[in-house]
């Protein structure tokens, strides 16, 4: 009797190719780092090619043998997204994992938005990721395997003052993720989301350094602290892995318990 072929180690992504949008810094960078550490080939996206190249070099320096490339394009530009996926497939043979992380925020009351301003923010936070997911899913479906991971926010579930357009976009992403979970499941594709809470990223540095706001975090978050950016990476690796093959249409909340506290 011949020996059975060795199985893939748990949470190993060797041989898989991932595109992570908005990965030049912050949570996108941390998810890209975790995927690369799990042995995926990772392509990081952003609009600033210089920042992306610096981030890619940093990842290669952190992780021995890491395969990291860059794809500078604006997610709101649908044609540029198609071209980027074409280039990834031409170079690597496939795109197995899409982490739709990119997002913009503009905290203002709805009355302060013009229709043009609202449409631009929705375009970046919802329409662009939607079209990129559509393109990726079509390619994945032809191969019978894929992972769509949408980074939403706890703002898609609970609302705060003067943040309506971002909140609407993130809630829309959650709906998109669930719809794609239904439409593409039989093509071997799972569609899930990660909803981060309050993380001590570069973008939030001002709030982190604000003693009054950090006191609010201590009260509002059961864990009593900001999330540390590396704490997001494991969620992405899990949802990208074979171990999550029967997880579909799920929002994995990573918020220290904030959204379950009254």
What is the top-level CATH class? Alpha Beta
**Largest sheet geometry:** 7 strands, parallel
* Through-space gap between termini: 60 Å
Beta-strand content bin: 5-15%
| Spatial strand sequence of the major β-sheet | 3-2-1-4-5-6-7
Looking at this structure, what is the CATH superfamily? NAD(P)-binding Rossmann-like Domain
Describe the protein in words:
- α1 crosses α8 and α4 packs parallel to α5.
- The chain has a single domain, classed as NAD(P)-binding Rossmann-like Domain (Rossmann fold, 3-Layer(aba) Sandwich).
- It has a 7-stranded parallel β-sheet with strand order 3-2-1-4-5-6-7, with helices on both faces.
- α2 links the parallel β2 and β3.
- The chain has 262 residues and is α/β, with parallel strands linked by helices.
- Helix content is 43%, strand content 14%.
- The longest helix is centred in the middle third of the chain and has 29 residues.
Question: Can I get a quick summary?
Answer:
Helix content is 43%, strand content 14%. The chain has 262 residues and is α/β, with parallel strands linked by helices.
Question: Keywords, please?
Answer:
262 residues; alpha/beta; Rossmann fold; seven-stranded parallel sheet; 14% strand; globular
């Amino acid at each position: 009797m011949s020996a059975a072929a060795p199985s893939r180690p748990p949470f190993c992504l060797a041989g898989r190719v991932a595109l992570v949008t908005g990965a030049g810094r912050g949570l996108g960078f941390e998810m890209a780092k975790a995927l690369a550490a799990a042995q995926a080939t990772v392509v990081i996206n952003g609009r600033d090619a210089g920042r992306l190249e610096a981030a890619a070099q940093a990842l290669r320096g952190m992780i021995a043998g890491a395969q990291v490339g860059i794809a500078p394009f604006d997610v709101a530009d649908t044609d540029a997204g198609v071209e980027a996926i074409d280039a990834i497939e031409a170079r690597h043979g496939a795109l197995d994992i899409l982490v739709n992380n990119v997002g913009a925020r503009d905290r203002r009351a709805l009355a302060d938005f013009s229709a043009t301003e609202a449409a631009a923010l929705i375009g970046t936070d919802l329409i662009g990721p939607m079209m990129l997911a559509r393109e990726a899913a079509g390619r994945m479906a032809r191969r019978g395997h894929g992972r769509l991971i949408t980074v939403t926010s706890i703002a898609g579930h609970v609302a705060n003052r003067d943040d309506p357009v971002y909140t609407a976009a993130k809630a829309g992403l959650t709906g998109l993720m669930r719809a794609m979970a239904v439409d593409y499941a039989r093509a071997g594709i799972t569609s899930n989301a990660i909803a981060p809470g309050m993380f001590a990223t570069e973008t939030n540095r001002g709030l982190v350094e604000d003693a009054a706001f950090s006191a609010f975090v201590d009260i509002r978050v059961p864990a009593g602290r900001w999330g540390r950016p590396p704490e997001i990476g494991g969620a992405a690796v899990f949802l990208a892995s074979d171990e999550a093959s029967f997880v579909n249409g799920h929002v994995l909340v990573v918020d220290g318990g904030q959204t379950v506290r009254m």
